Amino acid sequence: MKKFAFLFIMVTSVAIVNAQDITDALRYSSDELSGSARVRSMSGAFGALGGDISSITINPAGSAVMLTSEAGLTIGNYNTQNENTFFGNNTSDTKDQFDLSQAGVVLVYNNTDQNAKWGRMSLGFNYENSNNYSNRNFIKGLNTNNGIDKYFLAYAQGVSLENIDLLPNETVDDLYQWLGENYGFAEQQAFLGYQAYIIDPVSSDNLNSDYNSNAYYTGLDQEYTLETKGANRKFTVNFATEYDKKLYLGINLNFHSIDLKKETYLSEIGFDADSPLQETGFKNYLETYGNGFSLQAGAIYKATKNLRLGAVYQSPTWYRINEELSQGVFGISIDENGNEYSPDVVYPNVTNIYEAYKLTTPGKFTGSLSYVFGKAGLLSFDYIRKDYSNTKFRPVNDAYFSTQNNQISNSLQATNSYRLGGEARIERLSLRAGYRFEESPYKNESTVGDLTGYSFGFGYNFGATTLDLSYDIAEQDSNYQLYSVGLTDSAAVNSKFQTIMLSLNFKI
């Protein structure tokens, strides 16, 4: 593709409302397993434990369990493997990324008054990669149902020909930009399909608003690639305190940051010999960035010397999100004698900069218990309740957002998640393992299935310094829909998510 300098334009809300859907809502509402290698090796079952810097993002009271000030960081590798089935054809793809997963510090202040009910206090700061978007997927198959022509037709019907036909001396960039500024996303898609000769008007009348496809086929060889980069990152400010050496209380202020780059490309061949259209390619590049805020309040209670109970409430996260989109399409066509025309390449030198929108993701409740076997080890269990149907695009009185919110409410559900972790200590060496299960957020689990994961790891305590290593793997089935309209066929995807993390913590 030829490189261009971008022309930046503001697109009205008419355009942006076609960009957000239930998939986006779920993406920014979901949390991966995160934290230090010790936390991850026990599958995140730390709600009643504390004592680890990154555990404060699970239960804010956890920092008050720590006896001394500590600092630490975690680095590691994220690996995603996808196995796809599309119209009976199997493909696979994988992507690795090395990144800083977590870094933080907890400062502990001990009350020297032995008779005081309020004991030590702690102040913590933590950064973590709470959701890694590094992913790549390759889908291929012989589609006997739909082609990309159906996508462009869905948007073109009802659009006046005079709006998408180039005037003398008018460029592709000029008209694509004008459509975005004055009409919106649908008209831009109609324009792309028409200019690439994928669709044609029924009549040449300027007021024509009915279109036909130039694609004839009984089956199309389609190749679809998806690549995403970026992360949802969270910075936490924590305060916690101990009361009567049994009760630990804490609060978090969480500052969230979204950075997502998503690129898709579809190519099609295999059209009938008499089809005016013989080959297509369609590219979209979306950048999403935004910020959010949430609160957490938590408690840990020592019911007995060995038994601990934990409870945490996390508020909804309130996001403000921006998106930028660039796209292009090409078509190769032939005349009635089978002679090939020059390719119709329509790559507007324009980036659509949409108005910011707001998203409120659901809060969640975590209940935990753990049993500590003295210096020999421990077992810990977390239960998490989260209602994804409470996710909301805002403003809620916007007609399009209202439709999407109704779809979210009807399609998503409250979920239960379970995490179990254990640790065995042999002098300075700790051996760890964990299991987690997360219910599908969809009422129809064929869209996205349940997630099951396992984790393992070990750590060594050098005294003032600890070194921890973890490995975790999770698996989930889903159906990935290529486009929201027209070409709506789905690929069955089996995804495996693996991470290897290394943490270094030291007392300060």
Automatic annotation (TrEMBL):
User: Where would one find the signal peptide in this protein?
Assistant: 1-19
Q: How does it sit in the membrane?
A: Multi-pass membrane protein
Keywords tagged on the record: Cell outer membrane, Membrane, Signal, Transmembrane, Transmembrane beta strand
Pfam families for the chain: Toluene_X
Gene3D superfamilies, per the entry: Outer membrane protein transport protein (OMPP1/FadL/TodX)
Tell me if Lyase is a UniProt keyword of this record. no
User: Can you provide one Gene Ontology molecular function annotated for this UniProt record?
Assistant: long-chain fatty acid transporting porin activity
GO CC terms for this protein?
A: cell outer membrane
List the InterPro entries hit by this protein, alphabetically.
OMPP1/FadL/TodX
**Keyword Transmembrane set for record:** yes
Cell location:
Cell outer membrane
UniProt similarity note: Belongs to the OmpP1/FadL family.
The record's PANTHER family line, in alphabetical order, gives:
OUTER MEMBRANE PROTEIN NMB0088-RELATED
Task: Output this protein's name.
Answer: Long-chain fatty acid transport protein
